[in-house]
Amino acid sequence: MAINAVALAWRSAGRRAPALPSLRATQRTSILHRESLLRQVRYSSDAASQTKEAAKETTAQVTQTVKETPKKAGRKLKRTVLGTSLALTLLVGYIYGTDTRASVHRYGVVPLVRLLYPDAEDAHHFGVDILKTLYKYGLNPRERGDPDGDGSLVTEVFGYTLSNPIGISGGLDKHADIPDPLFEIGPAIVEVGGTTPLPQEGNPRPRVFRLPSQNAMINRYGLNSKGADHMAAVLEQRVRDFAYANGFGEHDLAEQRVLNGEAGVPPGSLREGKLLAVQVAKNKATPDSDIEAIKRDYVYCVDRLAKYADILVVNVSSPNTPGLRDLQAAAPLTAILKAVVGAAKSVDRKTKPFVMVKVSPDEDSDEQVSGICDAVWGSGVDGVIVGNTTNRRPDPLPQGFTLPSKEQTALKETGGYSGPQLFDRTVALVSRYRSLLDATAPTTPKVIEAQEASATTTQAEPDMENLPPVEAPSASEVLPRKVIFASGGITNGQQAKAVLNAGASIAMMYTAITYGGMGTVTRVKDELRKEQQ
Ligand SMILES: Cc1cc2nc3c(=O)[nH]c(=O)nc-3n(C[C@H](O)[C@H](O)[C@H](O)COP(=O)(O)O)c2cc1C
After folding, report:
1. Is 169 a catalytic residue?
2. Which of 129, 356, 399, 465 has the highest count of CB atoms within 10 angstroms of its CB?
3. What is the residue-wise DSSP string for 58-89?
4. Active-site residue, from 163, 225, 318, 505
């Protein structure tokens, strides 16, 4: 515009216009200026477009950020929610899965294990291994809420006050791998073993068979054992771990202090209100006819194991070691039990373990039962476990039930039968042992003295003849009564109550646990509590 104005003025001035050169110079200057302006304009329009771009970009970024902020927050929230839900699920799963009341143990775990391990012995090994591992990491099933705490099931055994009258019988934990996880599922007594002096393989596999329709089993393990030395080492380590964890220190002295009761718990179970039983047996290779060799077998086990046991159980009733059951005849039994009692008394521990003998349900003639009772009184053992697996093949339950063909085949396998079908015989046999043991208690000088005293009292005071006669104390009132544990077919609280009423102090289970899973003891105790109401 400036340039046009200058040109117009020049035209109107004509040739007369002075200072043309300067005009040209001005013109040149203004052209340069114009270019610079144009450049500036171009530049400023470039800058403007760049700014615009930048603004656009920034706007886009802002929009993006504005858009993404809730997305990011959403993702974070999602992660938090997922993490929390996972943690909660794990926690709930842990609380549920480790509670013996959870029905998953019976209706989930047991069928699954059976499916995964068609061979019952594989399932047994898996069960022991998994329980051992879970216990190591604190993930084992256990009784929560201290159901025994109400004291309704408290029972006295061998002068101990036990939290309940339920036990787990021999063979479930053959090598003492899992006494603690077993205690945690609720029994007051866990029996480990049977162990033999030397390691032995037992019978060839397969040697354990299921009869699922009957919740029963047949086994011919044949006392497979890692040997008494192995079990002693395992139990010793257990005591040492306990001693260390409870501030007694390490090494021999700490172990001895715990074994001598300084921890205030029984030296075997290491738990208040509970007892550990250790079962011993003879090696298969030890000749049946050599009673001295057989005694040495049992005594060897006792020497190694007695200090880790609250109760020693002498197994003379496994049906799977040839000749073993013959040792239940009165004479050899008395000799063996005397040897065991003697060895148990010489254990290097403040309190000595009690000794029991586990008898068969098949040797049940009057002569056999009374021979065993004589051996019990004659040897000084403290009690009897009645009974074990049976060589008989009981009728299926319910009456008239036909077994599936697979189970009919299993039924023909050699071995000891266990499961609910044993129950009626068990309760009857407990009753017989109870009355016979009480009736055959020997008369000691103390009893005679008491009887004479009561007789003199009645004679010396004739004016008291209208009073009821003073009863002489019976032998069983003076001598400690022999203790009975019942084993065979116990699966519920009603049956537990029946064997207790028949004279047993403890109702033991094995097969019911393999079919009912880790909650079985808790369930049976609950049922027993209801029975008692
Ligand atoms: C697979 C298996 C292994 C057993 N091992 C032993 C054993 O080593 N020592 C023993 O005295 N009893 C053993 N028993 C017998 C049980 O301890 C128990 O006395 C018997 O099974 C009867 O009780 P239940 O019907 O509750 O199982 C075993 C039983 C089974 C099923």
Report:
1. no
2. 356
3. HHHHHHHHHHHHHHHHHHHHHHHHHHHHHHHH
4. 318
- Which percentage of the chain shows pLDDT scores above 70? 83
Residue 238 lies in a domain: yes
Does ligand 1 come within 6 angstroms of the Cβ of 224?
no
In which domain, by residue range, is 498 found?
145-441+480-532
Which atom of ligand 1 is nearest to 219's Cα?
1
**180-190 pLDDT, tens per residue?**
999 999 999 99
Burial (CB count within 10 angstroms: exposed 0-12, middle 13-18, buried 19+), residue 195: buried
Task: Return d(Cα 456, Cα 501) in angstroms, integer.
Answer: 36
Residue written as token pair 């339920």:
166
Per-residue model confidence (pLDDT) at position 167:
98
In a domain, 35, yes or no: no
How many domains does the structure of the chain reveal?
1
Q: What distance lies between CA 444 and its chain's CA centroid?
A: 44
Q: What pLDDT shows up at residue 460?
A: 39
List, for residues 302-359, the tens digit of each pLDDT value.
999 999 999 999 999 999 889 998 999 999 999 999 999 999 999 999 999 999 999 9
Dist. CA 385 → ligand 1 center (Å): 12
- Output DSSP code: residue 142: B
64 Cα–ligand 1 center, Å: 73
- Looking at residue 405, which CATH number applies to its domain? 3.20.20.70
Q: Is 191 helix (H, G, I), strand (E, B) or coil?
A: strand
Q: What is the mean pLDDT of residues 245-260?
A: 96
Question: DSSP characters for 354-412?
Answer: EEEEEE-SS--SHHHHHHHHHHHHHHT--EEEE---BSS-PPPSSTTPPPPHHHHHHHT
Taken in order 82, 84, 87, 89, the sign of the CA dihedral is negative
Question: Tell me, what's the pLDDT at 442?
Answer: 84
Which atom, in ligand 1's list, is nearest to the CA of 420? 25
> Is residue 412 domain-resident?
yes
* pTM for this entry: 0.84
Nearest CA to ligand 1 atom 10: 170
From 245, 314, 237, 241, select the one nearest 280 (Cα to Cα): 314
DSSP H or E run through 193: strand 189-195
Over residues 382-400, the pLDDT tens digits come to 999 999 999 999 999 999 9
Q: Residue 428 domain-assigned?
A: yes
Q: Is the distance from the beta carbon of residue 123 to the nearest atom of ligand 1 less than 6 Å?
A: no
